Design the sequence.
């Protein structure tokens, strides 16, 4: 099967998917915007891609406004690519630009769309990128229904939300798990570090510091944890408005290191290798690339029971679950986890099993190929 992938902003995820698909026997083309690999993954992004994946460089940056010169140039390139690569199926990640999506829906080639976020996260509702994504989806969803497009969601709860909010036909909405994200290191480079061992490394709170991430929940849990475990260490790595709101509260504790900056991909691996646990006390979520990355490095998570997180963080198997917005529960989970080396080792074993099983790209690719087959049958 020949597959043409459009990653949009999900370049690292789509590279991992492309690698899994070619390993499963598919012929894969990957169409990327200029500079998106360097910006979203890192300068070594081409090294992460299997040599059997055909890289197709798009001529221009993403275009939001139709009928501009850039829009027409990109659309002409897309049409030539559809003819030249001749895919059996096109797979688009949501968050792509208008030129790409209109060109995709203008073909007769079977289409699959991955929806990463069914609704905007708190704090993202007014962002221009989300508004444009919502507008594009609203405009194009009727065409997607007519085209018998297949939709991929990363969890059963997200599938239910999508069916409710977008009225898509149930038989065309599928669940495929979010695979682990190991693309922060070069192929063959060791992933796991020593942070989960004894003594434990810092508890890691990583990513965009947005309201839905629950950084304030962690800040309110911190005094209880430090009182019980004064030797515990914590690393806050990332930037965003939520950090500004609790910065003074966190800075009052010498056990907390704050890296208020964008973390380049080349440095992410070392964060996870040093980390004892991945903190995800989200108050709202769809799925989590942060947890998927942590699993690649063998790092368990303490996460909230929101969205599809409980579908990948199984309480007492590969992590610990808490109720959203509950700092006392988070504190208790952290105290227990950081103070019990046997628990950390057991949960890390669970993470390894999930990383090599349900969340492996071998499994993700196989399930995705099954969706493609259905798309081709219904086209």
Sequence:
């Amino acid at each position: 099967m020949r597959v043409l992938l459009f990653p949009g902003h999900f370049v690292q995820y789509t590279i991992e998917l492309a690698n899994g698909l070619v390993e499963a026997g598919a012929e894969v083309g990957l169409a990327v915007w200029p500079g998106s690999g360097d910006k979203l993954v890192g300068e070594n992004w081409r090294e992460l891609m299997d040599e059997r994946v055909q890289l197709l460089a798009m001529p221009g940056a993403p275009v939001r406004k139709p009928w501009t010169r850039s829009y027409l140039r990109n659309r002409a390139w897309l049409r030539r690519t559809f003819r030249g690569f001749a895919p059996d199926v096109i797979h688009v990640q949501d968050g792509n630009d208008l030129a790409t999506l209109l060109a995709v829906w203008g073909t007769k080639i079977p289409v699959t769309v991955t929806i990463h976020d069914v609704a905007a996260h708190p704090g993202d509702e007014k962002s221009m990128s989300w508004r444009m994504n919502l507008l594009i989806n609203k405009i194009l969803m009727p065409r997607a229904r007519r085209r018998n497009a297949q939709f991929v969601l990363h969890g059963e709860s997200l599938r239910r939300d999508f069916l409710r909010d977008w009225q898509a036909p149930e038989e065309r909405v599928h669940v495929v798990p979010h695979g682990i994200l190991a693309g922060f290191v070069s192929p063959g480079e060791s992933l796991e570090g020593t942070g989960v061992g004894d003594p434990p490394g810092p508890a890691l709170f990583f990513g965009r510091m947005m309201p839905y991430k629950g950084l304030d929940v962690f800040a309110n849990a911190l005094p209880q944890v430090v009182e019980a475990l004064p030797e515990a260490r914590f690393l806050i790595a990332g930037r965003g408005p939520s950090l500004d709101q609790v910065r003074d509260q966190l800075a009052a504790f010498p056990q907390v290191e704050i890296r208020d900056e964008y973390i380049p991909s080349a440095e992410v691996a070392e964060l996870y290798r040093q980390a004892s646990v991945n903190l995800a006390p989200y108050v709202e979520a769809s799925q989590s690339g942060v947890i998927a990355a942590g699993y690649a490095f063998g790092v368990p998570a303490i996460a909230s029971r929101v969205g599809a997180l409980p579908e990948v963080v199984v309480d007492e198997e590969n992590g610990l679950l808490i109720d959203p917005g509950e700092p006392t529960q988070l504190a208790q989970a952290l105290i227990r986890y950081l103070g019990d080396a046997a628990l950390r080792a057991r949960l890390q074993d669970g993470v390894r099993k999930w990383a090599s099983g349900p969340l492996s790209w071998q499994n993700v690719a196989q399930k995705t190929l099954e969706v493609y087959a259905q798309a081709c049958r219904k086209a």
